[in-house]
Backbone:
């Protein structure tokens, strides 16, 4: 395990956008600069702006709007909305692009810009590199006064997104079951949509942390340690299921009727199970996501296509392969019938639809082989990464290997796997394993770390 | 010529060229660092670039922990009054005033409603250039920009309390007004209506570009003069884009000039008996002195620039103050050029005197002035002014010498003023004489010397 390095850089300019801590690194200068660069990148077309509920959202929004207007963009402000709502709206409004202002699952001091293109998909790595080039060159084509138009607003984007999700789901099945649902929107952007959607789907709804005021009651990442209040609420109300969303409602976690956080890997497994049962076809996920996805195609037909880690890699492969569903094991479900983006709203609808068939979350879980995952990481100077990777490659050379990203070792008979991959953003190597028990997975990881450590420290 | 002007009075530039978002957020953060964390009011005029500039300014202010209140499209004097009258720590006017449409600018207002003075303006620039701004921790960043549309209306209500509204109502004037599609478009017609005037407005569509240059000098008043004649109005008023300056047209359709606005206002305030001297700058008509003298008052002259006049008006407890540009301030209301207050005082004067405006103007001294500009390379500007000063001190011209701002020579009812512009690479020569010919001759005599020194 590693500890944080000091000093910690709080600015991350990468192909997935610009992320920083307000009051430290995410300054208005930086934000207007990136907005201007994006305005030039989309050549002054219609650009949608939406944000999550963070306290600093208005500051960042003002800067984004200023930068976009200066480059002659027509700005449509969607206000506080889930990120998937922004991306859905891009298509609907036939916009040239969108800027989503959200640090997603990161804690409250962070904020970020994420850039989407005209089809409502985030920029891919080539496009993002191009945007960075425009930013770094710093010569923005500025609009003349007469080309600057006032900011427009659009308050119907959430309603359209709700309608789209409802149309893409077997609503009758859910309404017949009339499930009791508790949803924790973490006082995030999901609060402006999740309750309405759930009611529309025929659920009895209890909302916790449903004020869209950015006062996060816990870290917004929907992992077990942040879901205690939700687990309690599910137990107290005797609900059938609990849902937790992060601050911008792209990730979803599930709490069972027993009040237990079942782990984010199940979100995608359930969503895929529901979709594949009615429409078998290609399913796309990353190499580090649970084997439960393979069980889905074993059961219903279709095939699993594994990509590098990262939403855009999954989404672009889904587009190419005409996937019926996809996503990542961190709770990010992509359901193309709604839109090609991670969408906690579509995720909830699919889980509820499957729940109607399987009765309870626990019963549904039992349909899958017991699984235990373990994740760890080891600090590694970037110059030592190739040596470290060569060492594990040598060690596992006789096994079945998947080289999509880093090194994935597979044991088909026991369905165990071990994934070792260098991070793109930090000087670390991540090690993840899945076995029948978490104990076994931990041992696999420790074995790999033991091989890596001497090489890293050499 | 460079289209960016950064000076102690703020930042001004052409949108699409120099006045870009990063510069704007930098200035806003510098101002937030200077006055904040505090409440800062933002007003803007009707330029299409206003929302872009306002967004950038709001972002910069929020990042320094300031509370931001947007007044929307609103006259600059109303914002200045609101800063003074509320808990606000400062204000930013997004307006290039009388400049053409493609320009925009930030003007910085301090807690007491005055523009930053030269020292404060310098401090702001030092913060800007040092580039180390206060960055509020995320918990101290305000989660919303507030809007406040009623505060500017309150300004009009207070103005009515300071004038004899009853007399104006009784006179039931017909008033033509040209708002230049500017910030006053939504204010002046209603304000005049509340004073019982029949209002004939033109150019009050804030979505339209300026119909003419926004400076309310005679050359831009053609439309208003025609309107006054057509509507048989008792008076015509022209406002600039942000409502600080006022031009006046008589019931005969004549435009007696922007220098006269201050004379009319001075007559209005002094004839009413308000105590205190009159404050103006060294380049403004000496007709003001004659008006003041009739009422036994003193005239105090400052360097050219609203902040110099305003601070002198404040410290001398002036009855009225202003500049020859048509900008007049009434210190009992606020030390800021205010076209709404000015037109109210002109109407009050008309109501009290009970005669047509042309006859009131006829009783004021006639004004014969010439204003010339001579381009000069920036490197030579100081040397040229210095040379004129030396010649003056050697007695080449005779007369009294005033060195308050550049060189001013006063001799037997005539004067000439030579000074460097602080915003452009030009030297200004302004003269006044008993006749237009005399003023011309005097200005040309000095312009010749200036041109020679420039070469």
Residues:
């Amino acid at each position: 395990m590693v500890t944080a390095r000091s000093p910690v850089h709080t600015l991350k300019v990468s192909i997935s956008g610009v992320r920083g801590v307000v009051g430290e690194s995410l300054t208005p200068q930086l934000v207007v600069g990136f907005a201007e660069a994006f305005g030039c990148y989309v050549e002054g077309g219609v650009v949608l702006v939406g944000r999550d509920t963070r306290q600093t959202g208005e500051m960042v929004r003002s800067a984004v709007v200023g930068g976009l207007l200066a480059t002659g963009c027509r700005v449509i402000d969607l206000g506080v909305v889930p990120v998937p709502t922004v991306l859905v709206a891009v298509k609907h409004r036939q916009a040239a692009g969108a800027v989503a202002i959200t640090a997603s699952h990161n804690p409250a001091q962070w904020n970020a810009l994420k850039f989407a293109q005209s089809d409502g998909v985030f920029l891919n790595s080539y496009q993002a590199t191009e945007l960075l080039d425009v930013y770094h060159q710093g010569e923005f084509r500025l609009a003349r006064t007469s080309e600057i138009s006032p900011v427009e607003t659009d308050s119907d984007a959430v309603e359209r997104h709700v309608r789209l999700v409802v149309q893409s789901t077997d609503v009758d099945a859910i309404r017949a079951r009339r499930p009791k649902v508790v949803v924790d929107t973490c006082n995030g952007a999901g609060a402006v949509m999740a309750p309405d959607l759930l009611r529309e789907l025929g659920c009895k709804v209890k909302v916790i942390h449903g004020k869209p005021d950015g006062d996060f009651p816990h870290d917004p990442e929907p992992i077990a340690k942040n879901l205690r209040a939700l687990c309690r609420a599910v137990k107290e109300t005797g609900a059938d299921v609990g849902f937790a969303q992060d601050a911008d409602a792209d990730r979803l976690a599930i709490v069972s009727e027993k009040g237990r956080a079942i782990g984010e890997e199940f979100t995608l497994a359930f969503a895929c199970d529901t979709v594949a049962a009615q429409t078998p076809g290609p399913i796309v996920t990353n190499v580090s996501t649970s084997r439960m996805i393979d069980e889905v195609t074993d059961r219903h037909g279709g095939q699993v296509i594994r990509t590098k880690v990262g939403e855009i890699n999954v989404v672009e492969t889904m587009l190419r392969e005409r996937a019926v569903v996809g996503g990542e094991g961190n709770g990010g479900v992509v359901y193309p019938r709604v839109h090609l983006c991670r969408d906690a709203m579509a995720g909830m609808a699919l889980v509820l639809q499957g729940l109607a068939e399987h009765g309870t979350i626990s019963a549904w879980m039992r349909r899958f082989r017991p699984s235990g995952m373990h994740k760890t990481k080891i600090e590694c100077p970037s110059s030592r990464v190739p040596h470290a990777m060569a060492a594990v490659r040598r060690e596992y050379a006789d096994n079945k290997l998947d080289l999509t990203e880093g090194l994935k070792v597979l044991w088909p008979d026991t369905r165990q796997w071990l994934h070792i991959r260098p991070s793109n953003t930090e000087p670390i190597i991540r090690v993840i394993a899945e076995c029948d028990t978490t104990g076994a997975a931990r041992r696999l990881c420790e074995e790999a770390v033991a091989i890596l450590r001497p090489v890293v420290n050499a | 010529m460079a289209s960016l002007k950064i000076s102690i009075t703020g930042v001004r530039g052409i949108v699409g060229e120099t006045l870009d978002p990063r510069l704007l957020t930098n200035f806003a953060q510098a101002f937030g660092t200077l006055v904040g964390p505090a409440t800062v009011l933002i007003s803007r005029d009707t330029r299409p670039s206003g929302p872009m500039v306002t967004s950038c300014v709001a972002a910069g202010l929020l990042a320094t922990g300031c509370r931001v209140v947007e007044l929307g499209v609103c006259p600059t004097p109303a914002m200045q009054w609101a800063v003074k009258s509320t808990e606000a720590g400062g204000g930013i006017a997004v307006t290039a005033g009388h400049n053409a449409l493609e320009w925009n600018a930030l003007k910085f207002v301090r807690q007491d409603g005055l523009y930053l003075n030269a020292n404060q303006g310098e401090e702001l620039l030092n913060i800007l250039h040092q580039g180390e701004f206060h960055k509020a921790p995320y918990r101290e960043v305000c989660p919303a920009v507030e809007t406040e549309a009623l505060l500017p209306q309150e300004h009009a209500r207070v103005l009515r309390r300071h004038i004899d509204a009853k007399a104006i109502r009784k006179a039931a004037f017909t008033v033509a007004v040209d708002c230049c599609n500017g910030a006053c478009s939504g204010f002046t017609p209603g304000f005049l209506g509340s004073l019982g005037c029949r209002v004939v407005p033109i150019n009050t569509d804030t979505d339209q570009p300026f119909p003419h240059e926004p400076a309310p000098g005679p050359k831009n008043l053609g439309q208003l003069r025609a309107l006054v004649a057509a509507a048989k109005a008792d008076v015509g008023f022209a406002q600039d884009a942000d409502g600080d300056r006022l031009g006046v047209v008589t019931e005969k359709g004549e435009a007696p000039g922007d220098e006269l606005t201050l004379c009319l206002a001075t007559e209005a305030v002094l004839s009413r008996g308000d105590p205190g001297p009159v404050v103006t700058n060294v380049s403004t008509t000496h007709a003001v002195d004659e008006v003041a003298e009739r009422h036994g008052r003193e005239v105090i002259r400052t360097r050219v620039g609203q902040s110099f006049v305003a601070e002198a008006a404040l410290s001398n407890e002036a009855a009225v103050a202003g500049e020859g540009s048509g900008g007049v301030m009434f210190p009992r209301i606020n030390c800021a050029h205010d076209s709404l207050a000015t037109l109210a005082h002109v109407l009050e004067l008309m109501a009290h005197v009970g005669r047509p405006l042309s006859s009131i103007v006829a009783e004021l001294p006639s004004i014969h002035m010439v204003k010339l500009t001579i381009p000069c390379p920036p490197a030579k500007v100081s040397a040229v002014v210095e040379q004129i000063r030396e010649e003056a001190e050697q007695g080449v011209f005779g007369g009294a010498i005033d060195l308050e701002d550049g060189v001013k020579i006063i001799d037997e009812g005539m004067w000439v003023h030579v000074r460097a512009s602080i915003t452009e690479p030009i030297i200004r020569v302004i003269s006044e004489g008993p006749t237009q010919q005399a003023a011309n001759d005097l200005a040309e005599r000095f312009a010749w010397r200036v041109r020679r020194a420039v070469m």
